[in-house]
Amino acid sequence: MDTAKESQLSDAPQALDSPAFGRRPVKPGRRGRVLAGAAVAVVAAVVGVGALGLGGGEPDLAGGGVVRPGGTVKVTRGTLSEETAVKGELGYGPEMPLPVKASGTVTWLPHRGASVKRGGAVLRVDDRPVVLLYGALPMYRDLSATAMESPSQNSAGGSGGGGDRPGGDDPGEAGLAAAGITGQAGGTDTAGAAGAEDSSRVGAGVAGPVRGADVRQFERNLAALGYTGFTVDDEFSVKTAQAVKRWQKALGMPETGVVKAGDLVYAGGPIRVARTGVQVGAEVSAEAVSYSSAARMVTVAASAADMAWAQQGNRVTVELPGGATARGKVSSVGADASPAAGDAASGGAASGGGEGGGAEDPTVPVVITFADQKGLGRLESGPVTVQYVGRERRDVLTVPVVALVALAEGGYGLEPADAKSPESQSTGAYVAVKTGLVADGRAEVSGPGVREGMTVRIPK
Q1: Same domain, 338 and 403
Q2: pLDDT at site 420
């Protein structure tokens, strides 16, 4: 993974003057030694810049050309940006099996790459469609408005009178029967009927329609498909059952008003069929159909040690094969780091002493999504480069980093190309500057003695 890292120079010189860089601060006076010391300091600065990941070597200038020791460059005005570039992979994201609850023989399967939206069939089992709806809850039970009955209420006669006959003496019984809720005790004894109803709800007798968050989720989908006439709530009512019958008729299914657990599968939105794990004629299994997102996205195995750019909501630019670019957003960042490729290959054997084990940082999965799918063109998969611009400084003075010299009294300076230039300050042949953002081998500089167009020397 390629990562362009930028840093910021401190006003205090110790970062570049540390013994690790083998440098000595430049001292005023004794010009011959000052210049010699400057040469050593600049050479060390190049090493230090490389160690900090700032480029080093001979960076290209904005107007072309190469910075060489002993040469001169001009102080220019422009924009500096911290930019991170990492490798990613364009595709449809991870594959997951559909949680199909149906049992029986597979009689139809979609082809790989097919898109399925709400209300579409993901497969057919015993020639019944298994329909895709949108939601987070899985389909785990049958949904209906039919009451459950206790054995005592199914028996003939009894103190309640009419048993489960449709149209008994209770004027509300006909309505219950029409709704498919039968088995209520009849008779004219209102108090007795109320007591029977109460005891049936406490015990194993008549229970009301199915209720719960899964009902609301289903009703919301049913309404979105255009089957209305009921209130979207937590209760599977008689009116819901009537809408289900209309939906079942359109699907060519028996019009029962009951939704079986195997009739539906839920996903977060439209899906793309990634692969099928069975053949037509085989028994349905948990791996019958696997799916991925219907929208293209980019996945990045980001280094766990360099995650500053990978913050949810950050806007990024993705460079596609061929040079085109698209704008995306960091959608999700994994919570767990995976072992580096070298660690995984070595199997974590401490005694192996193998090649490359642990040579790379652990990685964290990062997903980038795109609001404009057309901006990705027709490409469905392939390697891409993800670029993120962090801090940015506009309209600032900049010089190549290798032009900076650490001063003994603190801070950094520049050497004017003309040693007798009026810009020279009390530091001898150097102009003291304040440093800011560093990016692409250039540093932001400011101060009373530095100006746009000023020519400075890169010491030998």
Answers
A1: no
A2: 52
Q: What CATH code is carried by the domain that includes residue 226? A: 1.10.101.10
66 part of a folded domain:
yes
Cα 376–268–245 angle (5° rounding)? 125
**Cβ-contact 44, 406 below 8 angstroms:** no
Residue 157 placed within a domain: no
CB 443 within 8 A of CB 52: no
* Domain count across the chain: 3
Q: What are phi and psi of 407, to 5 degrees?
A: -100, 145
| SS3 call for 154 | helix
- Per the CB < 8 A criterion, the answer to whether 178 and 170 are in contact is no
* Whether the Cβ atoms of residue 44 and residue 56 lie closer than 8 Å to each other: no
DSSP 367-394: EEE-S-GGGGTT--SEEEEEEEEEEEEE
Q: Are 396 and 80 in contact (CB under 8 A)?
A: yes
In this predicted structure, the answer to whether residue 30 has a pLDDT above a threshold of 90 is no
Give me the CATH number covering residue 352: 2.40.30
Note the pLDDT tens digit of each residue in 333-352. Answer: 998 888 865 554 444 444 34
**Contacting residues for 25 by C-beta, under 8 A, at least 6 apart:** 13, 17, 41, 406, 407, 408
- The confidence score (pLDDT) of residue 459 equals 72
Given 293, 310, 339, which residue is the final one in a domain? 293
- Binned at pLDDT 50, 70 and 90, residue 394 comes out as very high
Domain boundary among 350, 380, 410: 380
- Interval 437-449: pLDDT, tens: 998 889 999 999 9
Residue pair 384/318 in contact by the 8 Å Cβ criterion = yes
Residues 370 and 302 in one domain: yes
What is the percentage of the chain residues whose pLDDT exceeds 90?
52
- Nearest Cα neighbor of 257 from 267, 270, 247 is 247
Neighbours of 60 (CB within 10 A): 13
Q: Which domain holds residue 440?
A: 14-85+389-457
257 shares its domain with 406: no
Are 339 and 448 members of one domain? no
344-384 pLDDT, tens digit each: 444 444 434 334 444 578 999 999 999 999 999 998 999 99
Distance CA(188)–CA(186), nearest Å, equals 7
